Amino acid sequence: MSHATRLIVPLLLATATGFVLSAAEPRFGLQGALALPQADLSTSANPGLQFGGHAQWAFGQGHGLLARVDLTLYGQRNGTNASSLGGGADYTYHFDRNDRGFYFLAGATVLDYHYKFGNFTQTSNGLGVEVGGGYDVDRNLGFQLRYTTHSIDNATLGSLNLGVSYTF
What we know:
The protein is mainly beta. It has one helix spanning 3-21, and strands at 27-39, 46-60, 63-75, 80-94, 101-117, 120-136, 141-152, 155-167. The longest helix has 19 residues, at 3-21. The protein is elongated, with a radius of gyration of 16 Å. The relative contact order is 0.20.
């Protein structure tokens, strides 16, 4: 992990913890997405699938926090298998101010990318940012479009994720 990541991650966790302690009880759920590699990642990976879990906290008036853990398995490209495992924390804002309908999200994510080509393996990790939006149909079912980007080892690894979530 880079020096900046070691400083930023604890700060983000402390900030998120303060928000979480002032919010309502968390709601947990599962999500899945079609992951479309972008930028430099598209040269070593084809579209794949993302699976994960999440926790949501509502602060009222449409503001919230979405914390998630994701595993992404990209399709093989040119003999290379690529995957990522990580987590993120996103600020969410529902435009109807009632945690339904359309929302905006922005946040930070830490991902560990793993590449395998024959007997050669490489792992890279780093802190990234993400932006997106979605639509919550009701209290349980939602759809999301999220773009995540990381600058790792002089490469820009991006992914456009088209997902669905179910919150219990």
